[in-house]
Inverse folding.
């Protein structure tokens, strides 16, 4: 406590929520430390330690503003974030996990920086963010789908980066429908037979009796026609549901692998006007195969130190599990957007 008092006298702002400590810290505080604590409490109550305050939680944000701290309004949009300061400015990691909606707004950022840079670690895309001055605050245009994360760097010096490519108005939406080839490539316990499908459902519901037990890799493929392709637009492939990851190949070229929300990718550089060929390699979880092994009483838990146990402490057994959804489910669509270049600052 005496260290906090010294920091307060040196100019640091210190807050206790709701009340002061009842006793000195430590397992067995001495009589001397107890007396010292009471002396510091009297100094606080007497106002001699003006930078050390006791504040109710609902008044904390106003007090921080009084002390010159700018409020980050990212939280008001239900965005989670962390911020780190260094010699070049501030770095933000922003995630849209809990808002329940897509974000497409100018949001105030509590730093007075010369430039703001967006970076998507999943794709490697980087560019200067669009910025508008509103009062004394810089607002940055953020576009985040549900489940998406991004880095924002608030820099004290300007860079030579190009502008971030924002998605504009939707122009067209193409549902990839037709008879898809579905081929099971590798995995077990055995490979289900190749088949053709015209609707994406969990492969555990296929007629093949081994499909509900299959864990591994399967490939969906089809040809589709794309008319009026415009390379100046942005084309995104969007999956309703992927269980659990998907590698995208388009016209013989590998695009990317998706394993987290949002399950969508920019395929603009891989498309062509006219006929295109797409392959989607999907890997599921091993749960269905483990379910099969336990049903067949196959010994697979061969670990040196300890084997799996259930949550109740008994021997682990997955034989009564229901099949876990696997593969592509719902629609696969290609959406064409305009690209908006924003240079507002």
């Amino acid at each position: 406590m005496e260290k906090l008092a010294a920091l307060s006298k040196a100019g640091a702002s210190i807050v206790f929520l709701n009340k002061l400590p009842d006793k000195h810290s430590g397992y067995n505080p001495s009589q001397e430390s107890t007396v010292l604590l009471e002396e510091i409490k009297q100094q606080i109550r007497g106002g001699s330690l003006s930078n050390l305050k006791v504040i109710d939680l609902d008044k904390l944000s106003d007090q921080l503003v009084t002390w010159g701290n700018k409020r980050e309004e990212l939280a008001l949009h239900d965005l989670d974030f962390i911020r780190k300061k260094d010699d070049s400015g501030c770095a933000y990691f922003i995630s849209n996990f809990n808002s329940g909606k897509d974000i497409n707004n100018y949001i105030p950022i509590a730093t007075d920086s010369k430039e703001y840079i967006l970076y998507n670690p999943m794709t490697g895309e980087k560019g200067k963010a669009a910025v508008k001055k509103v009062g004394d605050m810089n607002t940055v245009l953020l576009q985040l789908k549900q489940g998406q994360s991004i880095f924002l760097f608030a820099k004290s010096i300007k860079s030579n980066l190009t502008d971030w490519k924002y998605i504009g108005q939707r122009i067209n939406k193409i549902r990839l429908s037709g008879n898809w080839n579905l081929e099971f490539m590798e995995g077990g316990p055995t490979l289900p037979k190749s088949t053709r499908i015209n609707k994406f459902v969990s492969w555990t519901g296929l007629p093949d009796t081994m499909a509900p037990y299959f864990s591994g890799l399967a490939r969906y493929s089809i040809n589709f026609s794309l008319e009026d392709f415009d390379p100046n637009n942005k084309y995104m492939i969007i999956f309703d549901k992927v269980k659990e990851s998907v590698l995208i190949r388009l016209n013989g070229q590998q695009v990317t692998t998706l394993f987290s929300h949002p399950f969508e990718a920019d395929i603009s550089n891989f498309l062509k006007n006219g006929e295109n060929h797409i392959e989607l390699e999907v890997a599921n979880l091993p749960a269905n195969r483990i379910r099969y092994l336990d049903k067949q009483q196959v010994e697979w838990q061969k670990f040196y130190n300890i084997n799996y146990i259930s949550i109740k402490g008994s021997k682990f057994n997955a034989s009564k599990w229901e099949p876990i959804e696997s593969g592509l489910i719902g629609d696969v669509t290609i959406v064409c957007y305009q690209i908006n270049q924003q240079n507002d600052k």
The chain has four helices and 20 strands. The helical segments are 2-9, 31-46, 60-66, 287-295. Residues 2-66 form one domain.
